[in-house]
């Protein structure tokens, strides 16, 4: 007879009653803020205790699924390929949650003697005790165990246990500094600090493993793009995030005449993943234009996009890029052409080339410096991407007679340049000064406003007032 089934059934009924009363009676709306905080804290304790029970159950499921004979494993008898699938089916949690439960169980489950079958002490008994007491849940267990167990044989087990004891004391609010109980994130910081202090070999073993495991893979091409997966080394990730944070740090100041109404800068509705994608696009664009990369066929790495003249002029149809089977939109072709070189190839229908002409419409470095001095960075208010990472946009398209001149070029980041036609912002030049008009939903007044983030122009404006 399972002695746990009845208490768990009673617990489930009590929890169901509490949830129903809280959801239907409106009692939560009438409690004070201090009582509401206490309710949330008490529920968190109950959740951690339930997680402790789940970790123990998962640990036992894992033990029964580790037999040498596949047919004798619990997972096989229940028709699952592994423990993760069994957990997902029984608990209805997502795969990552099932994986976290297994990792927590490995860290704190008791050891069973192979000779006597008796229950022995867990590898980290202090951490297990804290879990059973409801002090830490799955998040806390992994926050403490993961960094310290990664030290492996480089740190003696007893020394590791001492470090765990100190961090567990911090989790209980009994640490040396007397601080309140720490959250899982802060426990991870504490455990990581101990791991670094105890690991005499430093970061070299971890770095060697990171170097072996590094890779970046482009998946099979789809109509929407290329899926990407991989493992990048910590310093590469840090550099990418440094560039990303710098690029998306809003610091632009709009330059407007005295007395003019200034709309609030728009909220960026891109997701974090979309912003990170655009950061990578910016990095690749800057690198390709830097002139320091190795050449390909005697020329710098160049994105070659082909499109027929009729489709380019009509704005409808398809463009094609080298190394990409999926067709591009005409808007994508125009984005590439706006800051690149156009090579016109006239050919007969049978493919014979009749004439080649090259039209350079790239702003030179002197023009770019001047435009950067005038604009400061991407001119869309609230963007904040600096000049060095921005592209130069022909306000009047080159195909429509717009010159490659400072009076016709403005700085735009990759995102605003690529999607300018669809995001609602309008740009014009007024006596050589760029002006923007916000989308109607942001600013119903059809006002054109001069903009800059150039420190020189902003300081001159302040001195004039």
UniProtKB/TrEMBL annotation:
CDD domains: HNHc (cd00085). GO terms for molecular function: endonuclease activity; nucleic acid binding; zinc ion binding. Residues 366-418 form the HNH nuclease domain. Residues 253-272 are annotated as: Disordered. It comes from the Bacteria. InterPro entries: DUF222 (IPR003870), HNH (IPR002711), HNH_nuc (IPR003615). Belongs to the Rv1128c/1148c/1588c/1702c/1945/3466 family. This is HNH nuclease domain-containing protein. It comes from Microbacterium invictum.
């Amino acid at each position: 007879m399972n002695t746990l089934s009845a208490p768990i059934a009673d617990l489930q009924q009590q929890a169901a009653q509490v949830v129903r009363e809280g959801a239907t009676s409106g009692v939560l709306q009438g409690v004070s803020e201090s009582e509401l905080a206490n309710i949330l804290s008490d529920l968190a304790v109950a959740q951690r205790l339930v997680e402790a029970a789940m970790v123990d159950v998962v640990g036992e499921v894992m033990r029964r699924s580790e037999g040498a004979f596949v047919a004798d494993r619990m997972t096989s008898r229940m028709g699952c390929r592994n423990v993760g699938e069994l957990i997902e089916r029984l608990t209805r949690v997502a795969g990552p949650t099932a994986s976290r439960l297994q990792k927590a169980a490995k860290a704190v489950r008791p050891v069973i003697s192979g000779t006597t079958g008796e229950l022995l002490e867990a590898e980290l008994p202090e951490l297990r005790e804290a879990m059973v007491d409801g002090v830490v849940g799955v998040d806390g267990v992994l926050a403490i165990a993961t960094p310290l167990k990664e030290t492996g044989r480089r740190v003696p087990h007893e020394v590791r246990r001492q470090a765990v004891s100190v961090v567990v004391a911090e989790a209980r609010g009994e640490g040396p500094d007397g601080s309140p109980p720490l959250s899982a994130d802060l426990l991870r910081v504490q455990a990581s600090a101990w791991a670094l202090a105890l690991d005499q070999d430093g970061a070299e073993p971890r770095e060697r493993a990171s170097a072996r495991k590094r890779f970046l893979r482009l998946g099979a091409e789809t109509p929407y793009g290329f899926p990407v997966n991989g493992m990048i080394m910590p310093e590469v990730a840090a550099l990418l995030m440094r560039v990303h944070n710098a690029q998306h740090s809003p610091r632009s100041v709009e330059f407007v005449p005295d007395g003019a109404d200034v709309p609030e800068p728009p909220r960026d509705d891109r997701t974090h993943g979309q912003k990170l994608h655009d950061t990578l696009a910016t990095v690749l664009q800057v690198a390709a234009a830097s002139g320091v990369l190795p050449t390909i066929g005697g020329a710098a790495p160049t994105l070659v996009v082909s499109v027929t003249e009729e489709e380019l002029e009509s704005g409808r149809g398809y463009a094609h890029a080298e190394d990409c089977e999926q067709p591009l939109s005409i808007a994508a072709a125009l984005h590439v052409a706006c800051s690149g070189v156009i090579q016109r190839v006239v050919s007969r229908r049978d493919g014979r080339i009749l004439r080649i002409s090259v039209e350079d419409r790239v702003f030179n470095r002197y023009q770019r410096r001047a435009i950067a001095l005038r604009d400061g960075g991407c001119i869309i208010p609230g963007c904040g991407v600096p000049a060095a990472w921005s592209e130069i946009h022909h306000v009047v398209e080159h195909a429509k007679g717009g010159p490659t001149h400072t009076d016709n070029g403005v700085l735009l980041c990759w995102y605003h340049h690529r999607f300018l036609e669809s995001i609602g912002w309008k740009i014009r030049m007024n006596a050589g000064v760029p002006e923007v008009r916000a989308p109607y939903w942001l600013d119903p007044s059809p006002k054109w406003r001069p903009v800059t983030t150039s420190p020189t122009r902003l300081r001159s404006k302040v001195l004039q007032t």
